[in-house]
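TL;DR need structure tokens for one chain.
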Amino acid sequence: MINNLFGLFLILALASCTEDVPESQKGPDGKTLEENFTINGTINGAGNLIFHLEALSEQGAIKIAEVKADGNGKFKMKGNIPGLGLYQLRMGESNEKIIPLTLIPKDNLIIKSTVDKFIVSPQISGTSWAAAMTKYMKIYSDFHFAQISLMEKKDEMSNNELTRKFKALKVPVDSFAIAEMIADPGNAFNIVLSDAAKPNMGFIDWDPKNIDVLNRVCDAFNKNYPETVATYTLSNQTYQIELGYKQHVRNTSGTLPSPEIALNNPDGVELKLSSLRGKYVLIDFWASWCGPCRRESPNVVRLYNKYKEKGFTVYSVSLDDNMEAWKAAIKADGLAWPNHVSDLLKWNSPLPQQYGFTGIPHTVLLNKEGNVIGVGLRGESLEQKLNEVFSN
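>> reply
TL;DR here they are.
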């Protein structure tokens, strides 16, 4: 959970603690900065454990404060933070007991919990964002443990079914987060909640109304927490998301022609992408060494067999650098369509840059005119798009 919450927010923080003051927590004159927040905790079962408050940066975790709980699990932590930010409170010396905190100067945070429920349903109070966090942690933990149970059964279901079940599990989390951001755009905990509004796997099935939600939060943050790293980061991300969505719409509108590809097939014969005009074509960038590509192959084979009589085909572009491995994978995976090409340059091929991708599998769906109508389609999203195309 913590990786998702902190991955996009790199906080550089200065702070003070009780005894051993790190250099990063001192002012330019070398003096300890004035305390501007407190955290009072009562964690039953955490007697004599050390609690660490940290910020993450490109250099790793930055210690802001740490304190040892008494025998009853009670502690009081003080320190200095430069402004609104996303921090983590870590219990003990492992990385398994961590919760996110969106601290603001002058916060007097109160945390009550037990060792077992510390990351599941901590009771937070004393700040303007406490209620949102308390509710969110419970909803998110329900999703988190349900997700673990689902992954334990992943071998019993297809990728499409797994995707559908995962999306269904995530609905309560995202719905809560979006509703909270709309109701209270300036709530500091929206740093965490905003992840629900961002496209995690491209813009397919992503609601563009989320741009408006993110912009509301950015406007409130710029008013309430100006000139902070968190506000700048969120504003920049929202700007990039908006640009990306506009480009996605342009790329899938059916008016943008696909760049030509002219490479040799396994027999050394050149096969041009443009030679397939008049058919709906899925350009499938893959490789024999790519595990996710090979796991997606049965889905592509199934859809090819389902729609090939209706004018659908696949143009497979391999990023292999070994001819024999490429040919063996085509045979092993039953890739029955005749359109297989490669320059055998692996990532030195110019095609990833030309088509704008950095990972595979990557797909581009073309209409009969050779214009792009879909990007990044796979699994359930590919099946839905093809059903839409051939049902009209």
